[in-house]
Specification:
Radius of gyration: 40 Å
Mean pLDDT: 76
Order of helices and strands: HHEEEHEHHE
Number of helices: 5
Helix content: 40-55%
Structural class: alpha/beta
Length: about 190
């Protein structure tokens, strides 16, 4: 084996360190000559702020539009609160159909295979429309054990316009807005 003198390795490291130091000194002199020392480039900061301002303006306009959607008209002192329209509701339970048109006398129909309760439903809804002609909403409450097909049959019966309703001048759909929810109890 040939032995490499240790002194030669140290000399090579020392020369590499001198070259790095010389490069670093030349770089610093060049930056001083060009005037780059301590200078901050704010062009990129201005670009970032311009983009941020754009997004803030867009977000503010969207938020303002959402607030305008509510369109709250608060009543003044002289406004007398009018009686709200009675909102009819139909509760579909496992063995019964409860129809409340807002007249204070809810009716209970036994649901069976004969479909008698569904045949009486459009006439009861016409009575609800006559009670409150401007009312467009109805509530449909469904019990926990009611089959999906039964719910669809009730909705179809609700949407069917009877000839009496058409003759009375009502549109084909008496209550175009429907809210569907869970019924509080089940049929006894």
């Amino acid at each position: 084996m040939s032995a490499v003198p240790l002194l030669l390795i140290d000399d090579e490291d020392a020369e590499a360190a001198k070259r790095r130091t010389a490069r670093r000194e030349r770089r610093i002199k060049r930056q001083l000559r060009l005037g780059r020392e301590g200078e901050l480039n704010i062009v990129s900061i201005i670009d970032v702020f311009a983009v941020l301002v754009f997004f803030l303006l867009v977000t503010a306009s969207i938020t303002a539009a959402r607030l305008n959607v509510l369109a709250l008209d608060l009543p003044g002192k002289a406004v007398v609160a009018s009686k709200p329209l009675p909102r009819p509701s139909i509760t579909v339970l496992d063995g019964a159909l409860l129809v409340d048109i807002g007249d204070g006398a809810p009716l209970r129909y036994a649901r069976g295979a004969d479909g008698k309760a569904l045949a009486l439903l459009p006439e009861r809804l016409l009575a609800a429309k006559r009670l409150a002609p401007k009312q467009e909403a109805i509530d449909l409450l469904i019990g926990p054990e009611v089959a999906y097909a039964d719910v669809v049959a009730v909705i179809d019966a609700m949407r069917t316009a009877t000839p009496a309703a058409v003759r009375a001048g009502y549109p084909g759909e008496l209550f175009p807005r429907m809210a569907i929810g869970d019924a509080a109890g089940s049929a006894p």
